[in-house]
């Protein structure tokens, strides 16, 4: 029995008919051909042979002539409303900056595993990081997978590059104490944002998207994230507030009680329906503004080598090495999908903790 959508039918005269795409014109319109046989399996075999013949002999408007540019444009068009705006803009940037001019005019059939790997190595040599090149390959993989399903094009293998393991900076206890003393002195809304992040582990986009209606007595709700993205098909950029990074990133975080005093003070100074970081002069504070502010604070207290994301890693590490958080609880507060991610990426054992644990050792005898 043929599968639904298999385009194999038993005719009234008893023969089996198998349809296939024999040509696609310049506008993407498909033209079908048919083969006939006495059995369903024989019809499928004949159809496969016909499709293989098209790939070997096909015309420029058929599958043999489909270019990488066409595959990418079709995939982007079909998925424009299915993926997050940030991902869409990133893929469009990959296409515009790296694919269109380099391999966009190549036929998909000519892009073998070796050819695609050479292209990736060239991008790596041009200065792109392994993570960026892997992202580029992931996008191409999706486009070729679409071409394989839609046009029966061969599916090349994609060779990815090993990820660089970078040890994330974590504030030492002395550095964190120095920073906290600086933040609570002459505190303003920006310093409050840094302190809130240091004790909740928020991402900078989540912090900037936080509204006062998301902050209740004793807890806050992460419902969105703020990013500055390039405009769709236009020059320039714009602020976009979208859904959280992942499904588990939408979460409720209990707040430590000492933050309550600051929260109520700044709530009174702000619009009830406004952003937590919003002020009378600046309704929206975007992530890069907070990053600039944080860099100034670090310079003022003499802390080097840290970024805003360091606050998130420092929060996770302090929760474990000082406050003995249960890992499952910490993972949910951070919005991770698994405790493995929390342990592998966000919990960094300090030298003090290592020394404390090693001092517990003693001779068995």
Structure description:
The strands form three sheets. Strands 1-2-3 form a three-stranded antiparallel beta sheet. The protein has three domains: 8-63, no CATH class; 68-151, DNA polymerase, domain 1, CATH 1.10.150; 173-352, Intergrase catalytic core (hpI Integrase, Chain A, Orthogonal Bundle), CATH 1.10.443.10. It starts with 7 loop residues before the first strand and ends in a 6-residue tail after the last helix. It is elongated. It has 365 residues and is mainly α. The model has no long low-confidence stretch (mean pLDDT 87). It contains 14 helices and eight strands. A hairpin with a 5-residue loop joins strand 1 and strand 2 (16-24).
How far apart lie the N and C ends? 74 Å
- Quick one: biggest sheet? 3 strands, antiparallel
Number of domains: 3
Figure out the total of helices.
14
Q: What is the CATH top level name of the largest domain? A: Mainly Alpha
SSE series: EEEHHHHHHHHEEEEEHHHHHH
In CATH, the homologous superfamily of the largest domain goes by the name: Intergrase catalytic core
The average pLDDT value, as a whole number, equals 87
Structural class: mainly alpha
Shape: elongated
User: Uncertain spans, ≥5 residues at pLDDT below 50?
Assistant: none
Number of strands: 8
């Amino acid at each position: 029995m043929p599968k639904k959508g298999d385009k194999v039918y038993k005719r009234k005269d008893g023969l089996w008919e198998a349809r296939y795409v024999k040509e696609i014109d310049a506008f993407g319109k498909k033209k079908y051909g048919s083969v006939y046989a006495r059995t369903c399996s024989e019809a499928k075999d004949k159809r496969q042979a016909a499709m293989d013949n098209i790939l070997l002999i096909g015309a420029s408007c058929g599958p043999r002539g489909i270019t990488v540019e066409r595959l990418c444009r079709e995939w982007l068009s079909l998925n424009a409303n299915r993926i997050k705006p940030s991902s869409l803009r990133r893929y469009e940037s990959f296409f515009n900056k790296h694919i269109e001019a380099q391999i966009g005019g190549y036929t998909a059939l000519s892009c073998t595993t070796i050819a695609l790997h050479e292209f990736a190595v060239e991008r790596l040599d041009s200065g792109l990081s392994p993570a960026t090149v892997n992202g580029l390959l992931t996008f191409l993989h999706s486009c070729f997978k679409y071409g394989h399903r839609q046009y029966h094009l061969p599916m090349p293998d994609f060779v990815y590059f090993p990820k660089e393991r970078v040890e994330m900076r974590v504030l030492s206890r002395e550095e964190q104490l120095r920073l906290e003393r600086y933040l609570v002195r002459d505190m303003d809304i920006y310093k409050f944002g840094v302190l809130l992040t240091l004790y909740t582990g928020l991402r900078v986009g989540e912090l900037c998207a936080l509204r006062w209606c998301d902050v209740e007595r004793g807890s806050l709700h992460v419902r969105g994230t703020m990013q500055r993205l390039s405009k769709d098909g236009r020059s320039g950029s714009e602020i976009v507030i979208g859904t959280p990074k992942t499904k588990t990133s939408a979460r409720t975080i209990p707040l430590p009680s000492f933050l309550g005093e600051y929260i109520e003070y700044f709530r009174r100074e702000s619009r009830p329906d406004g952003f937590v970081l919003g002020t009378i002069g600046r309704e929206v504070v975007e992530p890069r503004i907070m990053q600039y502010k944080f860099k100034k604070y670090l310079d003022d207290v003499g802390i080097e080598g840290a970024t805003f994301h360091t606050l998130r890693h420092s929060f996770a590490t302090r929760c474990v090495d000082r406050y003995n958080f249960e890992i499952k609880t910490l993972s949910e507060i951070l919005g991770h999908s698994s405790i493995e991610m929390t342990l592998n990426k966000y919990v960094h054992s300090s030298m003090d903790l290592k020394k404390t644990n090693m001092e517990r050792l003693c001779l068995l005898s």
